[in-house]
Amino acid sequence: MQFVRQFYEHFNYPFEQERKRALLADFLADESLGRLWIIEQAGVPVGYTIVAFSFSLERNGRVAFIDELFITSSARSAGVGATVLAEIEVWCASIGVTTLRLEAEASNERATALYMRCGYVDQHRRLLTKIHSGQHH
Region 20-49: what's the mean pLDDT? Predict the structure, then answer.
């Protein structure tokens, strides 16, 4: 949870610890939803990533969305992000994922540059969002 809190604070996202804890518990209890990994550097935890699954007819099957990728500031710029993305790609291919997706804040040029170096492309589509007012948890 400390990494999740740091991620949310870094982007000034609202953070309700108990709500996030409950959501993570639900996510971890159902492998069909995706996976969470703790990222380590030299055996020390330095972040986490959450990969969530969906399906797309257009993308020919199972899609993996890198929902959150957080690496502590002290471990950034050491190739950790690129290594994690490469490992996610190999693992996803091994379970039949046809497409990997992620999003970055428009102002986060550093993350966008990393993603593009790792082969992600801007397909010039807009990711539109509608928040359902009847959320639970």
Answer: 94
DSSP string computed for 15-73: --HHHHHHHHHHHHH-TTTEEEEEEEETTEEEEEEEEEEEEETTTTEEEEEEEEEEE-G
Q: Give the model's pLDDT for residue 5.
A: 86
Q: Look up residue 77 and give its two tokens.
A: 């710029």
Structural domain boundaries in the chain: 2-117
* pLDDT of residue 68 exceeding 90: yes
The side-by-side arrangement of strands in the sheet containing 61-71 is 34-41, 44-56, 61-71, 99-102
The whole-number pLDDT of residue 137 equals 46
Fold of 2-117: Aminopeptidase (3.40.630)
